[in-house]
C-alpha cells in the first residue's frame, strides 16, 4: 500500500520496488477498489518485464475494473499469445470480450478453456449465456446443466437456469433452481430496494419533512392519502389536470401552502430535480400486481364509455377472461403503437422511482390494510410527525374501509369507487391460464416485490 507522500517521494518509492512488490501492491490496490492506482503499478511492473504473464493478467484485470475495456482486451490478448495453454487467461479474456460485445471471439475463448480443462468453472455458464442470446435453447440448457455438474453450488447458474425454465412453463423445475439460488445468495432476488426506507438512516426524522406520495393506480391511493392527512393534519394536493406521466416542478410551485402532493406520477427529470432541491422525501405505494390487475379491470368496467377511454372501450367489449389477458399481456392500439401489459408498466414505474435518487419509503397496500397501525407509525417517523397511541388508533378507526374517505369526498367520487379493500382477491378471478401468463411475464417481479418465493403458486 502506497502511503501519502509527495509525487517525487511516491515515484522514488515505486522505482525502488521489485516487480514482485509492484504486483503485490497492485493486487492490494485491486482489493481496496483503487483500480486506477493498481493500473499504474501494473504498468510500471510491465515496463520491467513486458512478457510477464502474471503482470499482464493483473494489468488486464485492473484495466477492466477501471473501465478501460479496450486496453484490458489488448493486454489480456497479448497474455494469451504468450501463454496460449492457460485456461485462466483465456477465461479472463473471454469475460472481457463478452462484456464488450465481441461475442464470437469470447465464445472461442470459452471453448478453448474447456478443451484444455473440461472441468473449468464458469466456462459453461458463459457459453450458456451465448447460446440463450441466440435462442439456441437446447444447447444453452446443456451448458447450464454441465456447469452445475462441475459446480453444483453456484447460485448464479441456478438463478439463470430458473429464468430459462420459467419461460418454457416448466415452473416446478424453475422453482427448485430459484430456491437453490436464493438459499445460497438471497441478494439475487434483488428485492432489498423494494422494502423499508432508503437510505436506511432516514427512517426516522426529528422534525416534519417535505414529502410526496406516489401510488400506482388502483393500489389504495385514497387510503394512504386519508392516513397521511390524519398524521399531518394537512390537506392533500392532487391536481387532476396534470398528466399522470408528465408532471413537472410546477406541481410543487403551484401547490397550496401546507398541503402535501399525492398522485400516480412518474419521476420526470424536472420533478426529481425539484424534489431534491427542496429536500423532499417520497412515499411509494403499490400492491400485489395480481390484485392490481383485477382492480384495474373493474375500474375500466365502471368507467363511462368515452372516445378518449380507448382501453376501457375494448375491455367492455370482451369477456372478462379475455379482458384480463389483454390487460396483462398488452396490445396494439388504433395507431398500431404497442401498449405494454399492466405488470410491465408497474415494474417500470416502481423501478424509476427507486432509482430516482430521492429518499424513499415503501409502504404497500397490504401493509396498510393488514398492519395499518404499524404502517402509520412508520410513515409518521419517516416524515417527522410525532405519533402517540391514541392518535394512531383514532386514525386507524377513521380510515376503516367502511368509513367515508376524505380524499374521495374531496375528489367528488362515489362510494362505489371503493371495491373490496382487501388483498388476495385475485384468486377468485384469475384462471389457470392467467396464472401461467403471469408467471411468464411477471414471475420474477412477484419474487422481487415479496409476494411469492418462487413460481409454484
TrEMBL record:
Residues 209-440 form the Sulfotransferase domain. The keyword Repressor does not apply. TPR repeats lie at residues 53-86, 87-120, 121-154. It comes from Magnetofaba australis IT-1. PROSITE patterns: TPR. One of its GO terms (molecular function) is sulfotransferase activity. Keywords: TPR repeat, Transferase. SUPFAM superfamilies: P-loop containing nucleoside triphosphate hydrolases, TPR-like. This is Putative Sulfotransferase family cytosolic 2B member 1. Belongs to the sulfotransferase 1 family.
Amino acid at each position: 500500500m502506497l502511503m501519502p507522500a509527495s509525487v517525487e517521494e511516491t515515484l522514488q518509492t515505486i522505482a525502488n520496488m521489485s516487480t514482485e512488490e509492484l504486483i503485490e501492491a497492485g493486487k492490494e490496490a485491486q482489493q481496496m477498489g483503487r483500480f486506477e492506482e493498481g493500473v499504474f503499478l501494473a504498468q510500471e511492473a510491465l515496463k520491467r518485464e513486458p512478457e510477464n504473464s502474471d503482470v499482464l493478467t493483473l494489468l488486464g484485470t485492473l484495466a477492466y475494473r477501471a473501465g478501460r475495456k479496450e486496453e484490458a482486451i489488448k493486454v489480456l490478448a497479448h497474455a494469451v499469445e504468450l501463454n496460449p495453454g492457460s485456461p485462466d487467461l483465456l477465461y479472463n479474456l473471454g469475460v472481457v470480450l463478452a462484456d464488450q460485445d465481441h461475442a464470437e471471439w469470447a465464445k472461442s475463448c470459452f471453448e478453448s478453456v474447456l478443451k484444455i480443462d473440461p472441468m473449468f468453472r464458469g466456462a459453461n455458464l458463459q457459453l450458456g449465456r451465448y447460446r440463450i442470446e441466440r435462442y439456441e435453447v437446447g444447447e444453452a440448457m446443456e451448458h447450464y446443466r454441465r456447469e452445475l455438474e462441475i459446480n453444483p453450488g453456484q447460485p448464479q447458474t441456478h438463478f439463470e437456469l430458473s429464468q430459462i425454465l420459467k419461460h418454457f412453463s416448466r415452473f416446478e423445475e424453475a422453482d427448485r433452481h430459484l430456491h437453490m439460488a436464493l438459499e445460497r445468495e438471497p441478494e439475487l432476488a434483488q428485492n432489498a430496494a423494494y422494502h423499508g426506507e432508503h437510505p436506511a438512516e432516514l427512517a426516522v426524522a426529528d422534525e416534519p419533512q417535505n414529502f410526496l406520495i406516489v401510488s400506482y393506480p388502483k393500489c389504495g391511493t385514497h387510503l394512504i392519502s386519508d392516513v397521511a392527512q390524519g398524521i399531518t393534519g394537512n390537506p392533500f394536493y392532487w391536481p387532476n389536470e396534470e398528466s399522470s406521466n408528465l408532471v413537472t416542478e410546477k406541481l410543487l410551485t403551484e401547490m397550496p401552502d401546507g398541503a402535501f402532493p399525492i398522485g400516480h406520477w412518474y419521476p420526470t427529470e424536472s420533478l426529481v430535480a425539484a424534489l431534491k432541491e427542496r429536500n423532499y422525501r417520497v412515499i411509494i405505494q403499490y400492491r400485489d400486481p395480481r390484485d392490481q390487475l383485477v382492480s384495474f379491470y373493474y375500474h375500466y368496467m365502471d368507467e363511462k364509455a368515452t372516445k378518449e377511454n380507448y382501453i376501457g372501450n375494448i375491455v367492455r367489449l370482451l369477456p372478462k377472461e379475455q379482458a384480463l389477458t389483454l390487460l396483462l399481456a398488452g396490445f396494439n392500439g388504433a395507431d398500431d403503437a404497442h401498449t405494454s401489459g399492466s405488470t410491465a408498466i408497474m415494474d417500470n414505474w416502481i423501478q424509476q422511482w427507486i432509482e430516482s435518487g430521492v429518499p424513499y419509503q415503501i409502504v404497500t397496500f397490504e401493509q396498510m390494510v393488514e398492519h395499518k397501525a404499524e404502517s402509520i407509525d412508520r410513515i409518521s417517523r419517516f416524515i417527522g410527525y410525532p405519533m402517540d397511541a391514541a392518535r394512531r388508533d383514532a386514525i386507524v378507526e377513521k380510515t376503516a374501509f367502511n368509513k367515508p374517505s376524505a380524499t374521495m369526498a374531496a375528489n367528488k367520487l362515489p362510494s362505489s369507487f371503493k371495491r373490496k379493500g382487501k388483498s388476495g382477491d385475485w384468486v377468485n378471478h384469475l384462471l389457470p391460464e392467467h396464472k401461467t401468463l403471469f408467471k411468464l411475464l411477471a414471475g420474477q417481479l412477484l419474487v422481487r416485490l415479496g409476494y411469492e418465493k418462487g413460481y409454484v403458486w
